[in-house]
Write a structure and sequence with these properties.
The chain is an alpha/beta fold. It has twelve helices and eight strands. Strand 1, helix 1 and strand 2 form a beta-alpha-beta unit. The N and C termini lie far apart (59 Å).
Length: 296
């Protein structure tokens, strides 16, 4: 049953994350309207008490707070286009992937049609939606965030407003998200190597978790080095990582594992050495990754 005075919410897009968002609102007592191009996906949510809008226009009209969870900013604009006149005065919160440029374009589009805009990102998996330590960050119209902060915290207790610039959430989403695939592929490579010895990948999990904890503990130090531009106090030098490249090649031969994905990373380390960073902290790779400013 909806709680008295609970903010009505519309959730547009019912993939795995969108369903999780809608479920969290329903469980917290918010009158929740859902819409999806494939209407059948709404059935479990309707059974939980959600209202189902057959038309996107009805979905937008149902609530002062409209949350979209579609794949891209283009998809978001495309889905909302038939209801564009109904967005006026409503808060539109996008929780989709996309670039900072896409966020800026969508913000201009939404605000141009009278909507109040907030872009966001869920930094966890669908099953974590609603938990106290689940992180979501937002950027854009701070008045929207302040007005609906309590409602948005239903989705995760660690809820942050990054600033009024509409593209900041997308920027941080991509900046932080860049860590994911290399870390996962590293684990998958290790799993293949361990299995080549007849061992189970599950035997790695405890040790890999400790390794990730160690990496996490180093991030404040690396961030300080990068922000100051001083890489001279090297706990782990670029040269040390370069020497480790040979070990990767040995493992590839012994375990018959494809380590070609590491070649660009090894090349980056070599270029850092050539640029004079051999004895510097591995965080000096940032200087190699940073391209010269474009000339006007």
């Amino acid at each position: 049953m909806a709680e008295k005075n609970a903010t009505p919410v519309t959730v547009i897009g019912l993939g795995s994350m969108g369903r999780a968002l809608a479920e969290a609102f329903i469980k917290a007592g918010h009158p929740t309207t859902v819409w999806n191009r494939t209407a059948a996906k709404a059935a479990p949510l309707i059974a939980m008490g959600a209202g189902h809008a057959e038309a996107i226009e009805d979905a937008v009209a149902a609530s002062p707070l409209v949350i979209t969870c579609l794949t891209t900013f283009d998809d978001t604009r495309s889905a909302l286009r038939p209801a564009i006149t109904l967005l006026r005065g409503r808060a539109l919160v996008t929780l989709n992937s996309g670039s900072p440029a896409g966020a800026r374009e969508t913000a201009a589009w939404a605000v141009g049609h009278g909507a109040r805009f907030l872009a966001g990102a869920v930094k966890n998996v669908p099953s974590a939606v609603g938990l106290p330590d689940t992180l979501l960050y937002y950027s854009g119209d701070k008045t929207v965030f302040e007005e609906f902060e309590a409602t948005l915290k239903v989705l995760g207790g660690d809820t942050v407003h990054l600033g009024d610039e509409s593209d900041l959430a997308a920027l941080y989403e991509m900046a932080v998200g860049a860590m994911l695939l290399p870390a996962l592929v590293g684990f998958f490579q290790g799993a293949a190597a361990v299995q080549a010895r007849g061992l189970e990948a599950a035997s790695m999990v405890r040790f890999a978790g400790k390794w990730l904890d160690m990496i996490k503990s180093l991030l404040p130090t690396y961030a300080k080095e990068i922000d100051s531009g001083d890489y001279t106090d090297a706990a782990s030098s670029v040269n040390l990582f370069l020497a480790g490249a040979a070990h990767d090649e040995d493992l590839a031969r012994e375990a018959n594992v494809d380590t070609a994905w590491l070649a660009p990373l090894h090349d980056l380390v070599r270029r850092a050495v050539e640029a004079g960073h051999g004895d510097h902290s591995i965080s000096a790779l940032t200087e190699v990754l940073r391209k010269p400013a474009r000339q006007p």
